[in-house]
Amino acid sequence: MKYLAGLFAALLFVAGCSDSTLDSDAFANKPLEDGWTWVPYDSDLLRISGRTNYEKGEFVILSWSASSITIAFVGTALELNARTNNNVYLDVFVDGEETPSSLIFLTNSDLAAPSIVPVVSGLPLDTHVVTLYKRSGSNFGDWYVYGMRVLGKAEKELLPPMPKRKIEFVGNSITCGDDVLVPVPGQDFELIYESSFYSYAGQTARILHAEEHNICSGGHGIYVNLNGSKALTLPVMYRKTSSISSSFVLWDHGQWHPDIVVINLGTNDFASGKNDSTMFIKKTVDFVRNIRSYHADAKIVLLDGPMLYGENLVKCRQYLDVAKATLEGEGIMGVYRFSFEPNDGFHPVKEKALADAESLSAWIRLEFGWD
Predict the structure, then answer these.
(1) Pairwise CA distance, residues 113 & 260, whole Å
(2) Residue 137 shares a structural domain with residue 33
(3) Residue 82 belongs to what domain range?
(4) What Cα–Cα distance (Å) separates residue 244 from each residue in 118, 238, 249?
(5) Do 38 and 22 form a contact (C-beta atoms < 8 A)?
(6) For residues 104 and 90, is the Cβ–Cβ distance under 8 A?
(7) For 334, left (φ over 0), alpha (ψ -120 to 50), or beta?
(8) Residue 52 phi, psi (nearest 5)
(9) DSSP 8-class letter at 366
(10) For 7-43, what is each residue's pLDDT tens digit?
(11) In terms of domains, do 139 and 208 share one?
(12) Count of CB atoms within 10 A of residue 114's CB?
């Protein structure tokens, strides 16, 4: 976008390079002498999507993929006051852009203090809507947001309407979008190539015009993780606001009820070499029971693939079918099955993730009557 500062075409901004911070509620949304307006982290001028952790009282922590903050303002520039405990990539969308026009990288070179991070500048003096979207996974870093500064004034009534539909995606690295942007399928992982925005989850949410919660973490399974550990599997982490143990608190599921919960787990269970059919089915049944207790009216979709293939794919589909039948036998209805086309063991790239999103979206429209 031509109004963005030139260096933001491929920006890597290191949090901690500035000790400039402004966090006093006394200045909330009041233009200062230099024309900047302070919008604190807990202001209703910020629209936050995703699980939130306000426990510390000085900032909000956003951890899971696809968490986002949207602000509307009349002015010419926007800055973020934030830090991280590891590494975070943020996509920046300006004025209804369908794809991100810039990228912000936060790293923990200075863990103790937040920093002022330029987001967008040089905009014409007019109404603008900017969204910052966490494209990297929770297991790589939490996003600590203290507030935003606007060169102008934020206006709540200018925020766009929220989507009417809600989808919660639960999964592993596939749902996070690991390697979805790699130039060559199968090359070594780098965080820059991970993008929840271009994962099948992100693309499905956009196709269906739904708000998205993306509870995913690479290497985790429903019964056993890729490394063979049975601790902190995804069903355990599902209860939390982060996958990083030093910053998570329990999530209040009553704050957000999805219309559909899509569960894509099993790849790491089978890849671990320690999967057990009885325990896999039991843990799947237990997990769905828990989700149903949180979300009484949600449609729950058990999804397989697309990295499974051969005998593992056959077994996974069989186990999920048994889990669904077991749940129905207990009177737990509204559980569905869907399968992706296999991808020969590689993480899906953007085009394959789009094909998966299109097939899943078409099925949802047909099965649930979504137009």
Answers:
(1) 39
(2) yes
(3) 6-158
(4) 27, 12, 10
(5) yes
(6) yes
(7) left
(8) -120, 150
(9) H
(10) 333 344 443 344 444 444 555 666 655 799 999 999 9
(11) no
(12) 25
